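job 3f2a | input accepted
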Amino acid sequence: MALQLGALRDALISAGVDKSQASAAAEEVAGYEHRLTRLSTQMQFVIAVMLLLLGSQAALWAEYGKLGSQISELQARTTRIEEQNSKMAEQTAKLTEQTAKVLEQNAQMISQLGRLTNPPH
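job 3f2a | predicted structure (121 res):
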């Protein structure tokens, strides 16, 4: 026997509808009620999955925010390192210049020493 809504069937019969028609109508309405219950269950599942996805997305956004902070920190560090490298390059250039002067002075001193130790005859 198919699922029926007894109260509906009885009400239809009381209203003068034929028993077989009342039963058929009650079965049809019961079928719709069953489908609606299934749809409701499926919707609850979909809502649960959506809430899970929203929670996951919120967690991902939080991680994204942390990564953004870390990237900003790394950029600041990189800027400081680049500034230090620039200063070191300037110092290296100065030291190279000073070394060249010292080498030139050494060459002059060696030349003078050579003249002093080997006077022209």
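job 3f2a | The two ends are 140 Å apart (CA to CA).
job 3f2a | closed
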